[in-house]
Amino acid sequence: MTTDPIALLGIPLDANSSFMFGCAAGPAAIRAALHSTSGNEATERSVEVIPLLRDVGDVGITNVTGSEADADVITAAVRDQLVAHRQIISLGGDHSVTYPILRAMRERYDDLTVVHVDAHPDMYDDLDGNRLSHASPFARALEESCMTSLVQLGIRTANRHQVEQSERWGVTMITPRELDEFDAAKLTGPMYLSIDLDGLDPSCAPGVSHHEPGGLTVREVLDVIDALPGPLVGADVVELNPSRDVVDMTAMVAAKLVKEIAGAMVERR
């Protein structure tokens, strides 16, 4: 097992959100939870991962709705870490950050498998005229062939348009009722994990803008992380809205996920 650092990159963007803003404060809240003395530095497999995280700070963005310039800055920041041969965990911010991240990943990996935990498919062609909306990142990424396969877990809001989008690109969409059908052993190639915190049930993660009951438990998401065969080359944890959180519960869940993702990255290099 090597001990090369894993880049931790904050992306305080929420201008592409719908319904409400607040996710720009997510990276700072996750960092505070990561370094809280209420826990320690070890994963459930006793890998001490906090010293292996190289916090490279926040991307310098304008946080303007539909900004191509902000998307380009995010892509460049991720590219810099990949050029340095680092695995990367990004902290959102709203889910629009995933599209520019995956553009950078495409430059390095031509056979990327993406596993996406979410209540929503995020494959709208656009939302309210914004093609860079947090409801559209996977539509953009699929259009640009940023991945060879996309598996979505926890989806429970797919309307007809998004079902048609899924069929168009051959996306595997698994609802919470069907989670036992997810077979990670069938996944191949380098992997990227995108976790929208509203994929969890609001009872586990109230600090999100879009409460969607009937979601996954923290343990089910941890089991997904454990099951990924790897190598896990990148990940993001997005949509934490601290203004909606309760006693920092969702921030602590996000920090837990970051630690376990980092552990999986280290163990499956």
Summarize the structure.
This protein has 269 residues and is an alpha/beta fold. The chain has helices at 26-34, 68-83, 98-108, 137-143, 160-169, 218-227, 249-267; strands at 6-11, 53-58, 88-92, 113-117, 149-153, 172-174, 191-196, 232-238. An eight-stranded parallel sheet has the order 2-1-3-8-7-4-5-6, sandwiched between helices.
Task: Report what the structure shows.
This protein is α/β, with parallel strands linked by helices and 269 residues long. It has a single domain, classed as Ureohydrolase domain (Arginase, Chain A). The chain contains seven helices and eight strands, in the order βαβαβαβαβαββαβα. It has helices at residues 26-34, 68-83, 98-108, 137-143, 160-169, 218-227, 249-267; strands spanning 6-11, 53-58, 88-92, 113-117, 149-153, 172-174, 191-196, 232-238. An eight-stranded parallel β-sheet has the order 2-1-3-8-7-4-5-6, with helices on both faces. Helix 5 (160-169) links the parallel strand 5 (149-153) and strand 6 (172-174). Helix 2 crosses helix 3, helix 3 packs parallel to helix 4 (137-143) and helix 6 runs parallel beside helix 7. The longest helix has 19 residues, at 249-267. The mean pLDDT is 97.
Features:
16% strand; alpha/beta; Arginase, Chain A; 30% helix; 269 residues; globular; eight-stranded parallel β-sheet
